[in-house]
Amino acid sequence: MSGLRVTQRKSRNGCDKKQLATLRSLGLRRIGHSVEHADSPQIRGMIDKVRHLVEVEESS
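The structure corresponding to this sequence follows.
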């Protein structure tokens, strides 16, 4: 199963509560912080909600 490396690239200041909750659910805490997740439709959906704040890379 492939994975995704998600990195927060922009500040969460000014985001609404749902976007803050999504970043928290992904495990992102600060700019430059990276986490790895298994590739799934649920994770892809969360990434889509905050795509303007994060960078996504494929990992194996």
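Helices lie at 17-26, 41-49.
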